[in-house]
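It would be a great kindness if you could assist me with a short task in structural biology. The matter concerns a single protein, recorded as an amino acid sequence and a row of backbone structure tokens. Could you please explain, in whatever detail you think fit, how the structure tokens follow from the sequence? Thank you for your consideration; the sequence and its tokens are set out here:
___
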Amino acid sequence: MTYMTLLTGPERRRRWNDDIREQILAEAFSPGATVADVARRFEVSTSLIYKWRRASLMPSAPMGFAPAVLVEGVGRSDAEGSGFAIVVELPGGARVSLAANAPAALVAATLKGLR
């Protein structure tokens, strides 16, 4: 005789939409509620609830454009002379330079990483 074990339960990698997240957060942090009880009821990890809370409390910086200023009479920089198309000056004197012939995927990944 062959035996088979059937494991049931929620799918491990679930996607939570924003409405459900807000509902879970509101219930978990309402007066008298405990995060553990709400987590069990919704079958979600308590650490995930705290992660959602941190993300919701963290102010997101508004996206915008940085102004470009052209100054006449200024000599070429080291970056211009070496064929760099993008040069990002970081606080502390660090510099990120991307060559004019850099692949688009590299440029996108670098700029995304600097965000």
